[in-house]
Amino acid sequence: MERAFDQLDAAEFLAIWHHFDADDNGYIEGKELDEFFRHVMKRLGFPKEYDNENVQKLKQRFMSTYDVTADGKLQIQELALMILPADENFLLVFRREAPLDNSVDFMKIWRKYDVDCNGCISAQELKAFLRDLIQQHHKEVSPSKLDEYTDAMMKVFDKNKDGCLELNDMARILAMEDNFLLQFQLDASSQGERKRDFEKIFTHYDVNKTGELEGVEVDGFVKDMMELVRPSITAKELDKLKVILLGHCDVNRDGKIQKNELSLCLGVRPRP
Ligand SMILES: [Ca+2]
Ligand SMILES: [Ca+2]
Ligand SMILES: [Ca+2]
Ligand SMILES: [Ca+2]
Known about the structure:
Blueprint: H1 10-20, E1 27-29, H2 31-43, H3 52-66, E2 73-75, H4 76-83, H5 88-91, H6 103-113, E3 121-122, H7 123-136, H8 143-157, E4 164-165, H9 167-173, H10 191-205, E5 212-213, H11 216-229, H12 235-249, E6 257-258, H13 259-266
Antiparallel strand pairs: 1-2, 3-4, 5-6
The structure holds calcium ion (CA) (4 copies).
The site of one calcium ion (CA) has 7 residues, from strand 3.
């Protein structure tokens, strides 16, 4: 069973995936998961007698093998492991010590590897990312292996096959956690709660603790703010929205957002 997915090629696998992850949130859970497995079984040519009970059994066996986050959700990067080259170096890409839970860290990576600043990560840029990642683990990788890894990654994560990874595609590769801002309900809370939430929010994005949001800190904040309204903004949209946000909030025009500027912007009075 574990290798059953080997019979699916990448394109077929992704077609099934995109069908079931229709809202493109990068994971499949609950009832969708049953349907997903039923569909995969059918495509793999399992006999019709695979009734509900058998689907459940296969699902459980499968999930305990691959569901690395053990959260009952199947994530695209977990699924990707099945069709990507199964060698130790490559698995490093998906095996992270700490979850990436801050969009500021994410944007730092994005800005670093989008070398030509065209708002997308090309295969060439992805290759540099993979090379660095493997080196960080003190491993060696041959150029041909690196090419193979890069091709495989582009196949899985470049959804529209334009040779370009969007912010959202990279977020999948890096297994980015849910939007930090989702936990707050700025409209519903009392003034006291709003202030406390504001402190939490500012601290989260002021990663280098300078008391102001600058550079990628603003990027990360803009990304999360905008994705509360509309998931999957592009890097180009992000750049535009950043200019708009700075125009609105950066009162002293230094290109950074001081704490008092952000509190004014969000309608929260700063602490005296
Ligand atoms: Ca680029
Ligand atoms: Ca693309
Ligand atoms: Ca800062
Ligand atoms: Ca400012």
